């Protein structure tokens, strides 16, 4: 976990960043009473259900239940890790991040990664310089003449050339003893039979950037017909090819993190070529078929994904694979479509011969997901042959059963009815049979407090089904109220009593109250921060959005004094049921002649009477 000082975040950063200002930097907020609101950046909607509460320094979406403080917002909005998000928030606030020097392990790790990124950057510069050398002329000509790239594009994409000499990297970059090892770690040097040599030789070099614009890998392409046409580095500490997308960084940069659509093309050169022509939203996967992780990443930034393939059978197979990958993770409000270019073209050749408009026209006329699933798939079978027809229907139904959205399922069934010649009702019956055996993502919604996917249920009423839950929800949402009456209400004694009576949740209550005594100025946003990565995080996040109804009709918070009264009532509720149970048990003991129970029974009766009065 973080090597950033926690005290920097909770005591300096969070108190100095107004959440409404930070979020307004990314999306347009509107004032609504004491809160701010807008259409949610995390799910598709027409009317605003995203709300920002300055008094709590928190955001919450009533639609998709995303919630959290400024750091959570940046992590989600920009799909960054925790440390990167903190750095971004600090940059916004004009503050210098304070790193924790004592946690040397993570600091070392940070330094090691930083060295890797720096080294990759130096490699890219080296490849660029070789491209300008006499030996690199052949590479330069390849980019300029064979690919029609401008000098500006070559420079912007930091394209380069790897010479033939197997030791060029050692000669240029290995000045210190550990350097060679680092380049091996990064996959740029490999240990061969005759020693360590450069992985890429006599190839043009295309750097691959991560979402933050750091170089994490290279694609090396031959200029002739020798194989393999493309080489990629292995996975390394900074390069996870299942998660990254070529071209995503540039697409996000140009489109302010919200491209209207992302079009997935097959090759790096396609991305670069259409970008040069003016299409700012093309990406490619990195030497693999499109993965679920890449699709989830794209969904974070856009509502429309277009898969664009060559019209040959390899292209169709790739598209079908993409459809199967995306089916179980489809999301409400996201549009998926497919484009097949004429067999003689790829995106690169199309924009160069016919211009960007021709390419965009193909994208605009893309085939929808249901059409591709049913109609296009039907072309793979001879539907006159009863055997093939049944395989076609079976395959289609199996896929449709995996779609987590019922409206999309309905459209697919409607379309399937045509070519299959089976009525919609019969197809629905088949679908039902299939659904019972297929586990859809929806079945994961039913998770409890202790489970991982807490956000799904947060905000719903049954979070608060026990008084203890209600109490803890109040504490995390109103920490200032709690700390203001901590001694007056003898909360330490209260906790001890709860523990003695074995009330479920007492241990967590004790832990959460402990945090309040340590941080009397706690805000809900800080609660999230202090518990991040601890055993309390899940509980705190889960309860943060529980509906306690502490708002007035105009949307503001009820007065401080009323919140104290509310707190007192919940405290009573927590003890009342267990006390009544105890009184009942003591009564039975008394009736059996156990006079020792008399005193305790009397005391409990008095407490119950006083509280009911
Ligand atoms: Zn939302």
Describe the secondary-structure layout:
Blueprint: H1 6-16, H2 19-24, E1 30-32, E2 35-38, E3 50-53, E4 58-61, E5 67-68, H3 70-77, H4 82-93, H5 104-132, H6 137-146, H7 151-156, E6 160-162, H8 168-173, H9 179-185, E7 189-192, E8 195-198, E9 203-209, E10 215-221, E11 230-232, H10 248-254, E12 262-265, H11 268-277, E13 282-284, H12 292-301, E14 304-310, H13 313-326, E15 335-341, H14 347-354, H15 356-364, E16 367-368, H16 369-378, H17 386-402, H18 406-420, H19 424-437, H20 467-477, H21 479-484, H22 491-500, H23 506-518, H24 524-531, H25 537-544, H26 560-591, H27 597-612
Helix pairs in contact: 1-24, 3-4, 11-14, 14-15, 16-18, 17-18, 17-19, 20-23, 20-25, 20-26, 22-23, 24-25, 26-27
Bound molecules: zinc ion (ZN).
Zinc ion (ZN) binds at residues 40, 42-43, 50, 61, 63-64, 66.
Describe the structure.
The chain is α+β, with helices and mostly antiparallel strands and 613 residues long. Strand 7 (189-192) and strand 8 form a beta hairpin. The structure holds zinc ion (ZN). The site of zinc ion (ZN) has 8 residues, from loops. Zinc ion is lined by residues 40, 42-43, 50, 61, 63-64, 66.
